[in-house]
Amino acid sequence: QVQLVESGGGLVQAGESLSVSCAASQGNLDMAWFRQAPGKVRQFVAAMNWIGDSTAYTDALKGRFTISRDNAKNTAYLQMKSLRPEDTAVYYCAARRGSLYAKTDGYVYWGQGTQVTVSS
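Now predict its structure.
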């Protein structure tokens, strides 16, 4: 069973940056970030394939959010810049069996989530 542990959430002011991390218990996994704001459905944010040469982003966040990974540490990162109050959500890490290209769905392993709150 794959375990994912997120860290790095917190409270920031609008316009600031924040990074969250996700440590996986094993390698060779595609990894992704989703988020869920209060009263809203979970939304895909970004994904990276297991090799690290393919990424996918939801269009609205492209340019402000960047996904990366360190395969030596089995860890994925989400760097968030110019944060806005509407970015406030629980951010979830997800993983799936490794594939050639980053995918926006089909994730079967999930972390517990980390809260990101952006104040205005």
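The first strand starts at residue 4 and ends at 7.
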